[in-house]
Amino acid sequence: MKKRIFAFLMVLFVLLIPNTKVYAAAVNVNITGGATTVGGETEVTVTLSNQTEEIGVLQLCITYDPAVVEAVSGFDGGGGGKIFITSTEIKSSYTIKFKGTAAGTSTIAVSQTDSKVYALKKDANNQDQLMEVYAGTGSVEVKGTANQSKNNNLSALTVSPGTLTPAFSKDVTTYNITLTESCSRLTVSATPEDSKARISVWGAAMDPGDNTTKITVTAENGDTKVYTIYTKVPEAPKVEEKPIIIDIDGALYNVISNFDEELLPEGYEAVDYTYKGKKIVVGKGISNGKIIFCVSDASVEKADQQFVVYDEQTGSFSNLLMITTKGSSYTVVESLDALNSVTIPEGFVESEYTLNNVKYKVWVDANNESAQYFIIYCTNVNGESGWYQYDILEGTMQRAFLNGFTFGSADTTKPETIETQPQTTEEPDNEKNGELQAEYDNYVKKTRLALGLMAFLLVAVVIIVVIFTVKSFHDSHEEYDEEEEEAYEEDDRESKETRSKKTKNDDDDDFTFIG
After folding, report:
1. How far apart are CA 447 and CA 432, in angstroms?
2. Distance between CA 129 and CA 132 in Å, rounded?
3. The whole model's pTM is what?
């Protein structure tokens, strides 16, 4: 039983581990160094060791400095700073011959990105197994000849921007620069006294604060001299942008140019937007295309953030009123232009209702002052507008079906038409209610089916576990019973033999000898 549990856990572990590159094995690559003179040659040995799998295909990429050495032999292709060793007949070491072309030192290394080593043995799917390469580095030092110049001095050194302190001298190797303006890169102009000397510059990129730039002069014979420049770059002055202030019904608000996108109400996404020449982040309705700004009360130092609606045609702002119930969000429509085109359902009068400290324009039943609901005109996340009924006791919202007015139909249906054709207006309500009931019944049916399937799977798992447990227990006890029975039979045989011997002895004792 323990073995089965362990096997199950191992399978589960394999399924859960992330999908990463898995190497079949590894191999160490060591590189020796060498030394020569300009025009001379030296050998570098590349050794393979500690491989945990036999190598099938070898492709090593060796890099070097082509300005110092030149690869002569011992490789299968490449040049100009990058050569390849490719083989299917694997040896423990390979020898590469380099020629010195200029005084200096060249690092000899293995390019991990361009090297590939495959194991001889295929994997379970008959695919090549990639081996991981652990590589060291070597170097080749090239010395100049006796007749080569040792001159590694500069004849001139200038920078831009700024001025060296002290003034340049070939014998002075340390300088300072203090800049009065921000600078991203220091331009260095260096001239060697000997035209055969080489110059390299490191650290020309500038960051705010202290920076170090090094100019290395390599003489023809390989001797080097380093000139160092210490530069202090001032911090860029911080320009405080003036806040964007907007006016909503006489109240001033600060526009939050970059806010947490999680604050956006349902149905809106964050987009870049240009307002009065400044780039800011706003919310845009996915379906209705409305633009909303994130703002805070300018009269309060640490005011809460809220969203307001921006009318791109008029350039005006209005409060974004939303009601969220049961995970669904609705935008309340209070614009006079929008409401003027909407027909108010018969028997309802305008009123106000405060919800979460926010006042909303609502309509209540004129004939039932104690009604625990009101209707309100809203837009859902799909951009569809219409009348909704809010249940005050339950705190829920649903489409309104009142006096023939259904969701999205209030702006096209006239009260007179409803009164003269009561049957025609009742049928759509019944049909809508029937559709809703059918949707609900279908949802309940699917939910019950899913729960039943989950319960069945759970019971099946429990039964399987119990069967394995009982079978393992039974097998172990059967082995124990067989061993016990064999021991009992052995004891019984020994007992019978003992009794038989005793009886024989007793019989011998009963004999009487007569003399």
Report:
1. 23
2. 10
3. 0.37
